[in-house]
Write a structure and sequence with these properties.
311 residues, Metallo-beta-lactamase, Chain A, 5-stranded mixed β-sheet, 12 strands, 39% helix, globular
């Protein structure tokens, strides 16, 4: 399904066989183009969706969940609890609350006012591409299982990119629906943001890899962005190496007090639009929080600005 961003698509999945209704995994954003594509697709299959599973709260995954329920009466929706809670918090925030809290957070991490004004002008961008909150009928957690397409799917959850993202593994067909947790060419954004200030998302993300280490190396991985691939364990190793390299860059560069905003060029060597700036700041802060919790650096506040330095 198309996305109006630099990352221009999201993969969604239909699971079914000749005898049961389809289970849809993720929806795309709320847009006329996405609604149109779904109507064409379901019309071509001649099938009725019987179940909708949302892997996590981000707009490209949950954007049309409530629209589906309006189109198909009493369509059951499955999510994890933390993902639904986060979707509710993001959707219900007013433009003023969203922009104000975000601006305060980035200001104390060194972002100049001209950039803050550009980001604040976006308002609550979440509401702009999410049709509404779905009624969630089924809450699942790690270790639960679902049946779709005649196969049993094990629920494996992972944090970091989102708080309790659902991925699904079927041993019978050796397929892992990996959502955004494991992508083939890019790394999922791991952000520390104003609404999850006390967390350590990078530690959560790296720790989640243990949930996949026992899966077969030749599992077919279906990611939310990019093409399906094999080589699960190799890709997990590449993701570990990527974040280790970023942590090393920060370790070598924090010799005197410095803000997160001042460190952005170290991690991102390109011009960033307001949306990309939000992701970049979140990513930088996630790595700083990880080093802080490891006892390698400390944060100090002076004049309302947070700076980081080595211990």
């Amino acid at each position: 399904m198309p996305l109006p961003f630099a990352l221009d698509h999201v993969n969604v999945w239909l699971i079914g066989n000749a005898t049961d209704d389809l289970m849809i995994v993720d929806t795309g954003i709320d847009s006329a183009a996405t609604c149109d594509l779904w109507q064409q697709l379901l019309s071509a299959t001649g099938r009725t969706p019987g179940h909708l599973l949302i892997t996590h709260y981000h707009p490209d995954h949950i954007g049309l969940a409530s629209w589906f329920q309006s189109q198909h009466a009493q369509l059951p929706v499955t999510m994890s609890q933390l993902e639904f809670d986060q979707a509710k918090a993001a959707f219900e925030a007013t433009d003023e609350e969203f922009a104000g809290a975000q601006a305060a957070w980035y200001r104390e991490h060194g972002m100049p006012d001209d950039l803050l004004h550009k980001m604040a002008a976006e308002g609550n961008s979440y509401r702009q591409i999410v049709a509404g909150l779905p009624q969630v009928d089924n809450i699942v957690k790690a270790g639960d299982s679902l049946t779709a397409g005649g196969y049993k799917w094990q629920v494996i959850t992972g944090g970091g990119h989102a708080p309790e993202q659902i991925t699904l593994y079927s041993e019978a067909i050796n397929v892992l629906i990996a959502a955004d947790q494991i992508l083939p060419r890019i790394t999922p954004n791991i952000s520390l943001n104003w609404y999850k200030n006390r967390l350590d998302p990078l530690a959560d993300f790296l720790g989640s890899f243990a949930n996949y280490d026992s899966l077969p190396a030749d599992a077919l991985v279906l990611p939310s962005h990019g093409l399906p691939f094999t080589g699960l364990h190799e890709r997990l190793g590449q993701l570990r190496d990527h974040h280790d390299e970023r942590l090393d860059r920060l370790r070598q560069s924090i010799q005197k007090p410095v803000t997160a905003h001042q460190l952005l060029p170290l991690l991102f060597q390109r011009e960033l639009d307001p949306r990309q700036m939000m992701f970049a700041m979140g990513e930088c802060l996630a790595h700083l929080r990880y080093l802080e919790n490891q006892g390698e650096i400390m944060a100090t506040t002076s004049g309302g600005i947070i700076r980081y330095q080595t211990n």
